[in-house]
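User: Modeling request: complex.
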Amino acid sequence: MKANKHLLLWSSLGTLAVLLWAAVQENFFRDWRLIQREIQARLPSAQADAFAIQLRQIVSRQVGTTDRCVSCHVGMTPGESGIESNRLYGRHADVVHDPASFGCTVCHGGQGRATDTADAHGAIPHWPERMLAKEYLFAGCGGCHTHLSVPNLAELEKGRARFEQADCLACHKVDGRGGTLRPGGAGGQEGPDLSRVGAYGYKVDWYELHLQQKKKATSGPWLSAFGELLESERTAMDEYLHSRVGAPGLLEAKGLFHTFGCRGCHKVGGVGGDDGPDLTAVGNKDPGQLNFAQVAGERTLANWLKQHFRSPASVVPGSVMPELGLTERQIDQLTLYVFSLRRRSYPEALWPKDRIRAERFGTREFATDGATLYGTFCAACHGPKGEGMRYPGFAAFPAIGNPDFLRLASDDFLREQIKRGRPGRRMPAWGAQEGGLKDGEIGRLVTYVRGLGGVAYEGDSRPRRWAQGDPAEGQRLYGEACASCHGERGEGKEGPALNNPVFLDLATDSYLFKTVQNGRAGTSMAPFGAGSSVRSTLTDAEISTVVVFIRSWEGKK
Amino acid sequence: MNGVAGKQPTGGATALGRFMENLQAVPRRFAETMFRTGKPQSDRTRSTFVFGNVFLHLHPVRIHRWSLRWSTTWGLGIAAVSCFFVLVVTGVLLMFYYKPYPDVAYLSIKDIHFVVPTGRFIRNIHRWSGNLMVVVVLLHMARVFYTAAYRSPREFNWVMGMGLLVTTLGLSFTGYLLPWDQLAYWAITIGANIAQSPREVTDALGITEWFDVGGLQKLILLGSEEVGEEALIRFYLFHVMILPLILIALMTVHFWRIRKDGGLARPADADSRLGPPAAGVYPVFTEAPQKTYSLAAIVKGRTPAVGSGPEQTVPSMPHLMFGEAAVFMLTIVLSVVFAILIDAPLKEVANPAVPENPAKAPWYFLGLQELVSHSAFMGGIGIPMIVLIGLGLIPYLDREIAGTGVWFGGPGGRPLVVRSTVFGLAAVLAVEAFVIRFGWIRQWWPGVPQMVITLLNPGTVLTVFYAAYSVWSLKKYDSTRAGALALFTCFICGFVVLTVIGTYFRGPNWDFYWWPSQWPGH
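Assistant: Request completed. Predicted assembly structure:
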């Protein structure tokens, strides 16, 4: 009994101690209490009395957030004032979206309902969704603004260059630069800040209005800084201004995404190729579901993504994603963009304009000029200038900007080819049903691709099928001259597959004949109509028989 | 007033005086009347105190010294009750804030965790003492088995104990869904699919259309095809109302039967094993008995006071009370220490569109899930039923006498238990290693009839091994008890190993991994 008495005593004391500890912890040492007490101590005494140490929260019924972040970041509580400026505890910087009505987690991520630092920021077990790190902050925009229309990097840069060359920065501020002069004279009217002009919109006739002002002016910036602009310059500037929505870093990152042709393999929002995983919501991925076996460092999504961009196949064994040879800055940008792919389901009433336009009216989240379309969908495989691509471990991708090719390929050929793809090969079909491109977009792509080679279609007066000859002889010649690159049965090796049904359907006999005869300068395809020291010349008749032999695959599997 | 009253030495004379006197006496009288038989100060008043108190009278007035030894019970039964007590108190507190509706439930748990004063602490206590209760109940069962305390006349109480085990698991399982996070949602989805697994058999027989007992079980469990609001309300009601009531009812019977079955089991030679009581212990029953034993003539069975002398018994108050109080506080201190050290898990809100991979049931069902991964019916229903029926039958099959009340008592004894542990571990590890290395029937011959796959679970093979070993032991020692010792020990080994494998070594798609860090992505 004595032992039991001791046990009772000590376990009771133990329980009491733990309960006391819990009570003290709860009432005095919660993170937010400590922080608020410290802030209170720094306030002037009159204010300190009015400053209540209590839980604070921003509740947005609209968005469905209850964010208690302001219990620690006290200065960001709506209506709180007088707290000394401090990055963490002072006022929130002025942003488009008022934290008082949207809350915090909509943009920053993390657990809004949590009241402990680690919990709220999400660095705890069982909680996969961390708060966005500072360098990826703008990825938060992607939760709602899934459809910001962005051109490729070159187009974006072109627009920015025009804008700056035209000296617009003299009066207008953009992303924190410019705006040194006042068109209205000292103390007079300021040039509006254009950093978010893409979101708010601007007058269509801004150029005419500016011109009128210039005519009226006798001196000052209207006269000195504003000059006449060409239509093409204005178009480029418009594209640039449309992209100014207050998130320049994210826009640039998305521009990069639209430059490397990532969508050639990856779908985002239903548009893109099928070879790679759908990226629509990849920013929400749970790092717990990722393979970190080959990834050194932190087990975070950001770290995994970066390592993956550096060397996809070493992080995901068997990955067919090529190593793109990116710079660290580009890797950071792409990581930011991929992070931003985190669309959430919010009530439609809260959707931003861009999302409504895209999901209800079918506008695009990429600019739809030919250059951007090419950068977005084609550049990864066919090269930024249509020169073809050769990644280690992959057969070469065709040079579609090659003049020898474009001379023989009609616009219809290109259009149908893009639409129908090469079934069974790497080229996906891009028609509305498959890849999701519209006819008009494909048309602009065709124009752009033609521009890459700079040559027009030479025309073909002969019927689509005219070649004649002995298929057996054709087969012999094919075996000697072509099979080593195109495969015994035309299945394609280093060279493209010739037995592909879409290819055989689209390519006319003239196309095949002339390609064999003239080859494609700058690629491995030699001109067989002109011999060399290692290769005998094929006569026109011989080439015809080869074409006949190639035709023999048509309709076969 | 007091002064006036004090000045009247013969206050009892007047009505007002008597009133004042009574008024003054209220606190003393109140204390006295609380106890039916006066303050529990002497040996006798303590006994009558226990006897006359509604909460204490489930205890015997006097208790055998054997029962008070720590090694007799390790206090596991009391620990289980203590856990239940803690769970009721913390559970009721949680109910103030918990809202049983999908998504809202999750938010209310977050509020409890982050905003409600001490809410997190209370929830942690609830979580950990819930787990502790499952562990303690299992250990309690093992204790009763190994001390052969289930034997006549305690057979039925062992069956009651089985009922309590199942109810405890049910309580823990229903509570698992309530946070409505991913962990909860997918664990319950797994559980519901196990309930549905008889469909595997009815499908193979082609009678699902007419007799879908699996589907019906799932429907009864979830109230719908999927884990949704119906399931949540259902689980909530079971968790806070139906199962606790069942548990309380079963517990009452369980305790009452302990008394009626003659207290805790002890060896026949307990007295000689104990030796004479130590000098400090309350002496033998010296006071003249107040109660008559006339009732003993009509009372059936043996009670501690009948048929054996009171010499080795001591008054329950205070001896037993201190023991129980010590166990009670020990349980609480364990729960609160766990609660302050480890937070109860909470993942993101349940999302039916994003399955957890691996989705795991609560830990005590992971052994089953390991078997279920090969075929749902045998793993999830067949083998558990065999185990439960087997456990329930033990006291009715083992009707021997030798070894009652002694740890590992009976023919074979401790060496048999050790050997059975070795065999039990070896068998389960061999079967698991084989399955993990070479796969199972479905991988070898995908065309095999479903019935074969259903019935020939690795667990079936393991059960056959264990049964054969048990029969061999039974023959070797010529004793049912020896067979039971072998089988029960093997069962414990199987349960522990399968649970550990299910918990720590199974990753995405239920593949085997040495470490969670090797889990692949994509």
